[in-house]
Amino acid sequence: MGLFEVSIVLLLTLVTVTSAEPPGCKIRITARGLEMLKSQTMKFVEEELSNITIPEMHGSQGRFQYTIKDVKITELDLNSDLRFQPDVGLLLEVQNSSITLSLQRRILYWLFHDEGAINASAEGVNIFTALHLSRDQEGRLKISNVTCDAAITKMRAKFSGTLGRVYDFIATFLTTGMRFILNKRICPALDHAALVLVNQYLETIPVRTEVNSYIGIDYSLLSDPVVTESSLDMDFRGMFYDLKNENDTLVNHAVNPVMSEYDRMIYLVLSEYFFDSGLYSYYKGGLFQMQIANERMSKDLEMLLRATYFGTIMMLNPTLMEHPLSMELEVTAPPQSTIKTSGASVAVNTNVKIFVLPPGKAPVQLSSMTMEAKFNAKVSMKAKRLAIHLDLRRFKIFSTQSALESLALIPLQGPLKTMLQISVVPLLNNYTKRGVQIPLPDGMDFIEEVVEYHNGYIIVGANLHFRSGLREIIERRLSGYTDNSI
């Protein structure tokens, strides 16, 4: 390969690396979190193995003819482990375990007929199941493949009844067949549980869904999960969009969040882009516009506006003095968030216009000014919903027409700030208090969460809690039930 070709390859590689979309949201499940999942997983596995069906067995041995039916698994004693399998997903391992079965026999020897129960046990049960995790075409996490190997070292059977010892000599023949069938049924049962049932459970993780009547959110995975011996890391797009124009979205130029924590069960990382895309979508949806007039305007604010613009009204038309006043606020650009180690804030620039509203006539504009505000943003988690509470921190207004008018607006600073805190901020918090669901499946919640602020992103560390069992959630999913309790 020549120098020119090498340069082209290096350039293409650089372009590919630099053009990769950084995640707006990341989730890490640690070994501690996996230990929490283990109890739910093994309970589900035991339920699936307990439902294994074994067909009737017919045969003969010498002068004996037999039928074995109603085979049921009555007890499982599984020594299990669930751990991360690097570059694959999860490894479920069962070693030196046992399975107890009950079955009914019917045996014919010459003209002698006998029926009764048989207690059997499979011993030395070993199962190795690797669950391959990947991203599907829709950007959803799923189990793409299952590698399973199951083996039973030996099987014993004990006949009940007065002639139980007479039949012991055919026990080996019977248990050999049962061992063969049981061996063949374990892996298909686990394959179905993973590829069908667990994947239906994973479908409860939101991928592209509505947040409210204004915006939606895209939680599609950007790549396959990264699995190491100590964690499972997932990179999500973490992008909001305007429901009226889903293609008009904010380009992600934020920093790629870095995680180094492993102490808690789960970590959620949100970059500035996550919040900026939400603010951008609300802005594009026209939410950041409001009019304060008539009953929405307090008497104190109305009196202050009349005093401030008394001269302007008199110069325009004294007859307008008794008519209602109106204040219109319109955010002029998408608000921007800033996340630092000291906390998070949102900067907003707003155009404020003051009007007189003569009945039956067009509004008369008295003034146009610019308002610059900065809000403190406090992030909190409840169950699996992320909420933001805004609090006005800094506020400044100035005229877009003249420096002299800016001086005249100084008395308005305090009252307008109070008006924002009383009227506008609660309105904004009303949209954010319900929060947005983070990409976790139904029945799984955050508890004992701690929020940490870093330069450019937020890390929420928490432990996990199951409100419902895995099977219960899957059955709800199959019946069409959706968990809207949070």
Structural key phrases:
single chain; alpha+beta; 6-stranded antiparallel beta sheet; 9 helices; elongated; disordered N terminus
Shape: elongated
Class per helix and strand makeup:
alpha+beta
| Strand percentage | 35-45%
Distance between the termini: 59 Å
Computed over alpha carbons, the radius of gyration is 34 Å
Helical content stands at 25-40%
Mean pLDDT: 84
Stretches where pLDDT is under 50 for at least 5 consecutive residues are: 1-19
Largest sheet: 7 strands, antiparallel
Q: Tell how many strands the DSSP assignment holds.
A: 22
State the helix count: 9
Task: Give structural notes.
It is built from 9 helices and 22 strands. It is of the alpha+beta class. Strands 14, 15, 16, 17, 18, 19 and 20 form a 7-stranded antiparallel sheet that branches. The protein has a 6-stranded antiparallel sheet with strand order 10-11-1-13-22-21. Strands 2, 3, 4, 5, 6 and 7 form a 6-stranded antiparallel sheet that branches. Helices cover 27% and strands 43% of the residues. A hairpin with a 3-residue loop joins strand 10 and strand 11. The longest helix has 32 residues. Helix 3 packs across helix 9. It is elongated.
SSE topology sketch:
Layout: H1 3-18, E1 25-30, H2 31-50, E2 57-61, E3 64-77, E4 80-85, E5 89-109, E6 112-135, E7 141-159, H3 171-202, E8 208-210, E9 215-218, E10 226-227, E11 231-236, E12 239-242, E13 266-271, H4 272-284, E14 289-293, H5 299-308, H6 310-316, E15 325-331, E16 336-340, E17 343-356, E18 364-382, E19 385-399, H7 403-408, H8 413-432, E20 436-437, E21 444-454, E22 457-466, H9 470-478
Antiparallel strand pairs: 1-11, 1-13, 2-3, 3-5, 4-5, 5-6, 6-7, 8-9, 9-12, 10-11, 13-22, 14-15, 15-17, 16-17, 17-18, 18-19, 19-20, 21-22
